[in-house]
């Protein structure tokens, strides 16, 4: 036993001995003794950081956004069914009548309602999956013996007594009467009374469409999506967004990360869709943002600007805009310096309203020139006046006194020259010559200059130009058209007094197309003259038109007969050699001639009047992108709304037309009865446009499809 313990002692002693032959300083230092067993245990490596979802790696553009809070009134709200609150601003998206039947919203007997100023009013409401329904109407009869009648899609569904107090009446809609899409609801009241001293047929607070099954949607939004966009909001939980198009219903899944949710909407880029948000989804500060777009570096103000308004110029006759037989080599050659807004709209199909909109940046109803005899309202700021106040030599040189004559006294002009009135002829060469004289005069005073040019080509009379016009017609030039077509001939053609053969129509088209090419020659001469003076690089030329020209597309010639593409689609091209050398840059989002005045002002570094309704396109030019928009045109009681994908036209009699401009660019197939998605999108915009257009400015309303802030409640 003693031997065993001796051997064990020797073993332990050897095991604890330091290795021999190794210097002390080559050994690792000994750790101090510790009584903490946990401290001596091996330490686990920290868990890997959670990966960032791919969609949150995307950078979003802070300027190219659609803000949900600002556009709260555009959402369609659901409770037991679609719920229409008449006293709220969002109500207006359901009424598109030009002569507004509803008045102000008032507080009456502890309830808010909207005044019905006429005996009857029509609403258009989007409904889905309702075989039958109960319509609940909360209203006040105001007068004794009142009766409320409801018609749906042309058929009466009920008449009930409405007392002089707030009450909710229910109307049963039989199965098969409601459409899956747009539905017309007619509200009729029998007797007039008074509220607050004002005559009214009654007050209506709300209307709800309740089906057999409660909706799963809390709210929905019709919107045109950019090519690449993301839904983003503050939320701790994911939810599904239903995305409805004309052909499908799909789901966009949201992904949550650090208190935010995002969903990729790029699958539906360029389409008009309905976004449906589920009940129970809780989120704040929502927006739809485009993928981040790199912006050009800061641009210095352009020294000089020329606004070239080519009268009656269709954009589809210019090579920068369309595949056309018409040759415009000078405009095309300088396209390397051009920003081309491909879907620009005239403010009106008639000269006086549209010229006033070009020069003011306002819609006709606001500036006052709503028709051919209208006059500009006092205190309306013209582009020339704002530039004169900024120290810029501002001039007009043009041959259309009908369009611009009434703006002479209303604006500030250093020079106002009308060559044709001075016996110098109607030709664009005379306009060029007088323009260059004005420019030389401005330069002699060492001032920056702005010139608004208005040549008459290609407006009627269409003239024959040797070496040009014959390229567009191979036959003879006999009557009734010949080599000259004035306005009297166009009137006779429309009245049927001049019979037109196929060859005659070819002659007329050739005369117009020849005028377009001839105007391009004048454009080239103007650019050459600026280059000779050494100021081309310091000057921007903005090309546009007041309206297009009909060429028998609908059995009509001339203009002022509607809001179709041949009249509404006009150029908006910014030639800016100081800003661009790798063009043309083509921008697809719709613009309006209202955008021209603020764009020129910002290009020249001048302040823009707060009354202006158009938007400067300088930001779009810098980013070469913009968020989808809806823009308007109007003439009398008719109006048109243009989105990238769609055009809606409302005629004098209130009838509607809807065209898919991607599939049907010449507008042959009216889809108003068959495409509820496109129709609802533009009806929403139409309701707000009609109600708020007189108060709309860029500070409170970006365009007809996007509010900078909510329209003020009544």
UniProtKB/TrEMBL annotation:
One of its GO terms (molecular function) is transferase activity. It comes from Microvenator marinus. Residues 25-43 have a biased composition (Low complexity). PROSITE patterns: PROKAR_LIPOPROTEIN (PS51257). The keyword Transcription does not apply. The conversion to 3-oxoalanine (also known as C-formylglycine, FGly), of a serine or cysteine residue in prokaryotes and of a cysteine residue in eukaryotes, is critical for catalytic activity. The keyword Transferase applies. This is Sulfatase-like hydrolase/transferase.
